[in-house]
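hey team, just a heads up i'm posting the complex here instead of the shared drive bc the drive is being weird again. everything in one block, sequence lines first with there labels, then the predicted structure for the whole assembly after. its two chains so it's a bit long, scroll down
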Amino acid sequence: MTAQAPRTAWQTALVGWVLLGAGFALLLWFIALWWSQTEQASDAQKLLIGTGFLLMVLGIARVANQFTSTRNPLISFTPAALTLLVVVVTAEALLRAYQVPPGLIPTPSRVFSTLLAVRDVLLRDAFQTVVLEAMVGYLVGCGLGVATALLVSRYVFLERGLLPYATIFSSIPIVALAPVLVKMVGIDWQSKAVIVAITVFFPVVVNTFRGLTEVSSLSLDLMRSYAAGELQQYRCLRLPNALPFIFNALKLGTTLAMIGAIVGEFFGANGQGLGFRIQIEAGRFGFDIVWSAIIVASIIGIAWYNLVGWLERRLTAWHVSFRD
Amino acid sequence: MSRVSPNLLPMLVVAAVALALYWPLMYLANIPAAQRALDTGAALPCKTAVECATQLRSPVLPSPQQLWQGFGNLMFPLNSHNAIPINAAVTALETIVGLLLAAIVGFFFAIGIVASRAFERSLLPWIVASQTVPIIAIAPMLVVLLGQYGVQGWIPKAIIAAYIAFFPIAIGVAKGLRSPDPLSLDLMKTYHASNWQTYLKLRFPASIPYLFTAFKVAMTAALIGAIVAEISTISFQGIGKMLAENSRASDVVAMWVIMLSSAVLGILLVALVNWIERLLTPWRRARLLAPTKPTSGRTEVSP
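-- predicted structure starts here --
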């Protein structure tokens, strides 16, 4: 083997696919074998699962390099999808091999069948949590955040008086605010929207302010020599400069908004919402429904994050980080 | 000191304005509730709605006197198991241990992201996704699982704190590892530096400022994780346990006091990171005193 010429990328990938397929087949074979068994698997079979997992990981490490150069988002997502497949199949095999009770950790197949069975309820929950609570709060919080940052960057007095508080506020644990706000505003969706708005507000202010003020002094001099007014300075220099910073905060905000809305529901909800569902079902060990709710929340969270990322690519395509 | 003083006066003015606005707001919010309480004939030691606004059992906004009293009730005696100091110390311990765990895990992920495109492509989407998973759902399962192996008490909470804190660290360190400018990387190449040397001599030092920025974000995240873990699992100590108890008992004033104390705890923990940063990177302090342009580097890490 050592004397051969260096293998081409194509050969490496082929080996990768073969490893992946072999590991996958191994695990599937075990799952099929153990589908209706009720006792623990033998040590040799557990070793088999480990081998299958290892083969698939090695396979992915070789295969993934194929997908790094494409620009098509669907194709470049393939390695991530394969990783998910490995984790799901391995988890299924391990849970079946060790006969973990479904009240503790349900198997992935059980979760998927539950997800299909209760999808209507979960979609209604997701509408309440995501559209009413997270989205409304996110839009309000981000809007107010950008507006505050504009004001703060314009008036030095506000910068000195408000910005230190913004940095201080960002180190406050938001969960502690949730019960107070729920008591104050009520248990309907508005209270959770307020929590989300407060959560996303401070990162947006701090980031936008940095983007508006970290302008190169050369560009500022240029604007001045053009006799540009304040408005023009903001429109042509400061805002474009701030866009990457704003988008960083917006992307961070999507996950914060989801967590804020879900955690807010733990302290009081009107009988709907993903957080409410998770809390209720976790309390009576219905972990298959809990995982289904988590899957729905994750899918929405990822989609939202990517939507903001897509907007960022559209609006700041000129930035260094997107050039090759 | 000369760096702080220009901020002091505006900060005080803003604080004074906020406090001055709080009184009328408090009355405005509480008077309808007080009127309702009077109408229903609740036993209150006051006659008019304006008087009652500061003495409600569960006010919309508590009055400063109520907050002061509640603070006194919950703070002392200092060594009581129901008082804030011990519970805050337990939560702080969980948070710091969680942060250290998260730093180790986050660092490995960051190196993986920077070193291998394959690693980034196959795992980064799921690292992002893991942050949208509500930890509270995982917390009880994790506690039961760890309990089977004899791990109990504050350690599961530290692990949950680490789970939520490792994301900002991984992203921040990855950003820092990519921050050296291409010229410096080219220089390393012309020196025929190995990959390992490039990391040790260029990328790690360049990532230190980003590391501490990430630590500040992660510290808050870890505190949130620890509190959520305490709320959602059986716990006998901690800020989260107090919060859950008083939320069930609908003690609004106590909830406000705990909220304010946890805010102070968060500020103190971040101040700790600031202090360590100044201790460990004295060259940055020297540079901060001289006027320099902050870095505005940004690395795309979205999937």
